[in-house]
Amino acid sequence: MIFDTHAHLTDEQFNEDRDEVINRIKREGMLVLNCGCDEKSSYLSAVLAKRYDFFYAALGMHPHDSKDYTDKFEKWIIEHINDERVVAIGEIGLDYHYDYSPRPVQKDVFIRQIELANELDKPIIIHSREATQDTYDIVKKYLKTKRGAVLHSFNQSEEMLKQYLDLDMNIHFSISGPVTFKNAKNMLTLVPNIPLDRIFVETDCPYLTPVPFRGRRNNPTYVTYVADKLAELYGKTTEEIAEITTQNAVKFFGINLKC
Ligand code: NI
């Protein structure tokens, strides 16, 4: 079994064949966690989680859209956070690469959703791009729930990894397709420093497609190429990495797998 802990199957790139892609996940016997980015994708994530027993959902407002965060949306999250298979607040964070929302608004909405997670006692899924220090400072200051956080598509420095681990706040690190890219040399030295009990695999589909499918639309079944690369880096088999990362994520998200 393998668990893609960060997918966007609610993205419009799946509008033509979403059911087919989801059925393929089912046939492969995988688990998938779909992250909300805005109102619409959060809502659709919750709907799909209700429909499929291998489909988990996170609800939240991505930094790109943080200018659209409202009291009404927050109230909706509170109403649905304990729905079956809704397991986290995400994805939330800071993105200073695109700056689609003003930075002060991004920070406010990030903090507000962390406080929501504290209150609801749920883990958070963090997106951080070109905002390394601000992300760290906010997590350190505001994250109170012991449920912790996962830094998705983690590609920061070994120093930042160490600083996050030193916080002792149940921080996890999720690795995506770029670890398979030829130009991702920093990932090859970074990844083996991540403790094996703190690592997840993800696709971030439809984005970040791993080699050998780079350039095409990504989908959750390609998460095995990420696991292959981790197997190489940790000196394990792909099956062992799949097992370890799945168990880590199941535990972190508080998932009760019926055997
Ligand atoms: Ni994402």
How is this structure best described in words?
There is one protein chain. This protein has 259 residues and is of the alpha/beta class. The protein has a single domain, classed as Metal-dependent hydrolases (TIM Barrel). Helix content is 41%, strand content 16%. It has nine helices and eight strands. The protein has an eight-stranded parallel beta sheet with strand order 1-2-3-4-5-6-7-8. Strand 2, helix 2 and strand 3 form a beta-alpha-beta unit. Helix 4 packs parallel to helix 5 and helix 8 crosses helix 9. The longest helix is centred in the middle third of the chain and has 18 residues. The radius of gyration is 17 Å and the shape is globular. The model has no long low-confidence stretch (mean pLDDT 97). It binds nickel (II) ion. The site of nickel (II) ion has 6 residues, from loops.
CATH class: Alpha Beta
Q: Give helix and strand order, one letter per element, not per position.
A: EHEHEHEHEHEHEHEHH
Write the CATH fold name.
TIM Barrel
* Spatial arrangement of strands, main beta sheet: 1-2-3-4-5-6-7-8
Cα-to-Cα separation, first versus last residue:
12 Å
What structural class results from the helix and strand content? alpha/beta
Based on the structure given, which CATH architecture is correct? Alpha-Beta Barrel
Q: List the ligand species.
A: nickel (II) ion
Q: Rg to the nearest angstrom?
A: 17 Å
Share of residues in helices: 40-55%
Number of DSSP helical runs: 9
Content of β-strand: 15-25%
The backbone outline, from C-alpha atoms, is globular
Low-pLDDT residue intervals, each spanning 5 or more residues: none
Number of domains: 1
Biggest beta-sheet profile: 8 strands, parallel
- Per CATH, the superfamily is Metal-dependent hydrolases
Tally the beta strands: 8
